[in-house]
Request: fold
Amino acid sequence: MSGLNGYDVIASVYNKFNTETDYRKWTEYLEKCFSRFSGPAGIRSVLELGCGTGNITIELAKRGYDMTALDSSDEMLSIADHRVREEGLKNILLIRSDMASFELYGTVDCIICCLDGINHLYRKDDILSCFWLVSNYLSDGGLFIFDLNTPYKFKTEYAGHDYIFEDPDTTCLWQNFMSNNDEVCDFMMTVFEKDPDGPEDRWIRKDGMIRERAYGLRSIKNALEKNKLEIINISEDLDFTPVSSKAKRWFITARKSTNIQEG
Reply:
């Protein structure tokens, strides 16, 4: 048994147990945001924060965007790199880095962070650091498109819930532990996979933890505005449905504006 970064633990099973996510629909949503909210020059260059195994980055690259994608997990990036090579895509640059401390060589037209990546910035200072970097590497008028799991989802789907995902070759046990103030959730994961190089009855076990924090809209808005980022759209799904009190996810588009004063 080994204790590992939670992202490394789930990397090999991430796509297998995440089949309900429609990455094509997510990509179409992003392109609708590009069309609705970008300036006359449009969007050509995109940075994805927390790219995981590269699903959305690859979809956007196939549509002609110049992609840079970063993730803090070596295992996730290894899978993404393998897929990029298989697809023969030349317009993707993969970087191993944290969302709160990355560096680029220039600006991009748009920065995206999909599938609640922002919630994984569980230290509040990291949110400010991430948004500062987003603003720093966005061209003027550039877009920042991201989503978050809402406090309502934390309370109704995370708190005290356990999940099991399995197929003939893999089992993933997922336990959720909420903090006393219902703001932080620890996801404790154990993955069992058949050893491809061993006898049929030999399994490999990996254990790890991922942590997320629930943020309110006001705190997100304040953190954005401190870094010259102005919210221009909020919805609760990929079809731009207005936000309700029981929204489980917020989809947010912000724009870098030189007219907002720094806090």
Q: What stands out?
A: The domain at 3-149+214-256 is CATH 3.40.50.150 (Rossmann fold). Residues 16 and 206 are 16 Å apart (CA to CA).
